[in-house]
Structures are given as C-alpha cells and as structure tokens.
Amino acid sequence: MNGRSLMTSTLAVAAAALACVIAFTTATAGHASDEAAPIYGITIPAGYRHWELVSVAHEAADFDDLRAMLGNAVAMKAFRSGTLPFPDGAIIARLAWKYVPSAENNKVFGRDQSFIAGAATNVQFMVKDSKKYAASGGWGYAEFINGKPAAEAVHKTCFPCHEPAKDKDYVFTHYAP
Known about the structure:
Blueprint: H1 3-28, E1 52-59, E2 65-71, H2 73-81, E3 91-101, H3 103-109, E4 115-128, E5 139-145, E6 148-149, H4 152-155, H5 158-162
Antiparallel strand pairs: 1-2, 2-3, 3-4, 4-5, 5-6
C-alpha cells in the first residue's frame, strides 16, 4: 500500500469511528423520546442526563429507591438564586433506581452498610410553563418507564401529590450545592 492509500484508509477508518461515537453519544445522551406523556404532552428532553445535579434522595418504604434530581440551566439558575416561583422554561428531572445493598462493598467494610443504585425504575419531569399548565400550578408533569410514558392514571396523581409543596412552587427538591 502506498502512502496516499494508507492515509485514505486511515482517514476512512477514523471517520467511521467518529460516526459511531457520535451515533452512540446521541443515542445514549438522555434517551430522548418522541412519545409524549398523557395529559401534559411532555416528551423526554434530549440530553437531560447532562444537566446539573440539584440533589439526591433515598425514598424508603414502598418506593425504596435512590433518586437524583437534575435541572436544566433555567432551573439551576433559579435554585442557586432561590427564585420562586420558578421561571418558565425551568425543567427538573428525577431519575430513580432501586436501592440495593452492595455485597462487594459490604465485604470490604465487614458489615452491611453500603447501598448502591440498582435497576432503573423510572424518570420523571416537571416542566414550568405558567400559561400552558396554569391549571396545575404552572407545571406540567411526565413519567417514563423504559422510555415509554406511564399510564394516564399515573399522570393524574402528579399535581395532587405536589400540591402540599405549593409554598415552594410545587417543588419538593431542595438544592444541595
């Protein structure tokens, strides 16, 4: 192979590899979906997994899960400044995983004390649009399981569940800088 064909082959391989990386990154960066959740019509925002961390939580009892709350740039600015109500365009994501003991870590510690994120359970979104979602405190809600919208009955419970947090613009999450 001469120098020119070697260079052409190398460039072709590099271009193919780059295309694969871009395709993989696009496909995995937030798992955007065109399927809208019932009632509010919200779809999974592209790239939401790259948003900033707002807080984490462990919900015990019936849920027994670990949760990470993420915010888009508009939500993060509001969290940092303590702005209430949140401005239109704010989106808060809540990712949840089963709360499971880590046998590997507990073996090192010599006792049961370590828990990790297990299988993903769902992802939820709150989208602030004070006009579009005026009937639900200015927020639209969505829940997705394996990338598919949860049933309408589930979405009917969102706003009633958030009503006790009305004085915090219906947001339970506390910013943990």
